[in-house]
Amino acid sequence: MHTGKFTGRTLGQRLAAPNELPLPSAHLGLTWRPLGPDDLESVRDLLDESADPKIFDEVRILQSVTPLIDGNQSENEHVDALVGWDLSGRLQAIGLVSLNPNPLTEIQADVLGVTRPKWRGRGIGRALLEWQDGRARQLMLQAGHDLPASIRSRVRIDNMGRRRLLAAGGFSPQWRWTFMDLDLNESHRAMATAARERLAERGMSLLHLDESDSEEVRRLHNRVSIVMERRQPLSTEQWQERLVDSDRATSTLLTDGSNLVGYALSSGSRNGECLRVTFYGIDRGFRHHGNGTDLILANIESALNNGFKRISVPITSENPPATEFLTTHGFFEGDSQILYTIDI
């Protein structure tokens, strides 16, 4: 018989957020402080030199921290960053914690860290991760959403040092991204044309992403991605922060003549050689007919028109990925990344 003597654990009990959170030790050679309003150019310099160009969120750290240092109070409630400076006053490392402010099924804290190569191997990554773990728990407790919680970090599959660090910090591997690459030449234009013709035969049409379509694309993205990697819905503000002008120029929308039914968001690499599809999806009711494959293949035309020499497409999976739908068109397996999480 139920006696009413037992209660579930509170959010505070589950998170076990620290009351006090010390900064990384000074013996590591850097002086640590919160990110300040005068640090933007230093962060840009650090990212240009040291961010992993294949980790999308690392490259976009600048967009994540800009509202924070602009004094946006709402951003202060779900984003925090710590920066480490050497004796000469040069920024050598940054650690970022970012919460989705509008969780639906899970409150998530993404942690990102960038350290200049010559400062790696000194324990800075471990110290930053400890701070990020504690700060993530504090921010999630402050947000007050009584939902399942997770702390998340994305890493390249061949970065064994980072993977060991995450495992030692209590993280476990969850999702894998396999990037399927195709080295482009003019002969691939016919492949893109054929894909467009197949879509047209099904009553589909392709459009470039326009600012006026942004809100509808965001809504479709949220519907598609919530069942992948447990992603949470993005707000209008977050969506705008993630997109830059160059993304719009190379991204493609799919319609059935009346409604938006698919999208492929793309971003050019820093060296201008690779067009990376960052997010793509097809709405339910339009899947399993080849529409997703043809949407990707049609995007090759945009890549060629913009001078890219390679296109890279992510496939998300919990198990070994199903890549045949692209390998039959000449794509080959390139980089792979893993999402590590602490589930709370």
Provide structural commentary.
- This protein has about 350 residues and is α+β, with helices and mostly antiparallel strands.
- The chain contains 13 helices and 12 strands.
- The protein has helices at about 10-15, 40-50, 55-60, 60-70, 75, 125-145, 160-170, 190-200, 215-225, 235-240, 245-250, 290-305, 325, and strands at about 30-35, 80-85, 90-100, 105-115, 150-155, 170-185, 205-210, 250-255, 260-270, 275-280, 310-315, 330-344.
- The relative contact order is 0.15.
Topology:
Blueprint: H1 11-15, E1 31-34, H2 40-50, H3 56-59, H4 61-69, H5 73-76, E2 79-85, E3 91-99, E4 107-115, H6 124-143, E5 149-156, H7 160-168, E6 172-183, H8 189-201, E7 205-208, H9 214-225, H10 236-242, H11 245-250, E8 252-255, E9 260-268, E10 274-282, H12 291-305, E11 310-317, H13 324-327, E12 332-343
Parallel strand pairs: 4-5, 10-11
Antiparallel strand pairs: 1-2, 2-3, 3-4, 5-12, 6-11, 6-12, 7-8, 8-9, 9-10
Helix pairs in contact: 2-4, 8-12
